[in-house]
Amino acid sequence: MPQTSKKVMINILLGLFIMLSIGLLVYYSPAIIKIMTSMDNFRAYIHSTGHWGPVMFILFQILQIVVAPIPGEVVQVAGGYIYGVTIGSLYTTIGLIIGSAIAFYFTRYIGRAYISQLMQKKNNKWMSLIHDEKKFSAFLFIFFVIPGLPKDMLVFVAALTSISSFRFFTILIVGRLPWIIASTVIGSTIHMQQYTIAIIISVIAVIGFVLGYIYREKLVGLFSRSDSTKAKPKVIPSYSTNRESRKIKRDTT
């Protein structure tokens, strides 16, 4: 098959996949919203699926990463509310890794052109960082550590860069695991009605989010300034230019 025809076929299949995903999301959104309206509803639904409960919970975590506009913290807190800290953190992390892998490898090997155009339209200031792997890795870690910031979009962005899979998933797990555990602790303590611990962790998370939100532009600006400074070529006069300048000076004198 010619390269052009193959590219057209991939774009058609990609478009159909996106439209199908949007259609399914719109169709099932009312049911998903109803399930997620309260922790008790979510817990009741997961338990109603019997032995498939862990699978369904992991699917919700995958869904919120790949397509659904569900805040990750909601699912993480629900994990602690339903399963406790240890098992809830485990299931949430499994869903995080699988969902991120789907988004990462889909973008890198199939939907690179589409995702790249989508990101360029957003005109994000930090897009200039993707050409420097070390700076982008630091930027990823900062965003993953700060609670409440939109992290899932960065999975798609990372796939557009030359960052290795091992480095990306290491940063992802190390950066997000502390707040996954913290979120499941909140859910578990709420379920056990130990509200003091939940309030303390929530206050810390809110403070972390506020500080991160306030200084996010400065962090991005710090990386951007260093990037632009590096990008500016330093003009070094050549030996011949200096020699010609000296000759002109002697002639004029």
Polypeptide structure, described:
This protein is mainly alpha-helical and 253 residues long. Helices cover 81% and strands 0% of the residues. The protein contains 11 helices and no strands. Helix 4 (72-83) packs antiparallel against helix 5 and helix 4 (72-83) packs across helix 9 (165-191).
Identify the notable features of this structure and list them briefly.
mainly alpha; 253 residues
- Coarse morphology: globular
Largest sheet: none
| Number of distinct helices | 11
Backbone CA Rg:
24 Å
The unreliable regions are 226-245
Give a quick rundown of the structure.
The chain is mostly helical and 253 residues long.
Annotate the secondary structure layout:
Blueprint: H1 3-35, H2 39-48, H3 53-66, H4 72-83, H5 85-109, H6 112-122, H7 133-145, H8 152-159, H9 165-191, H10 195-231, H11 239-252
Helix pairs in contact: 2-3, 3-4, 3-5, 4-5, 4-9, 5-6, 5-8, 5-9, 7-9, 9-10
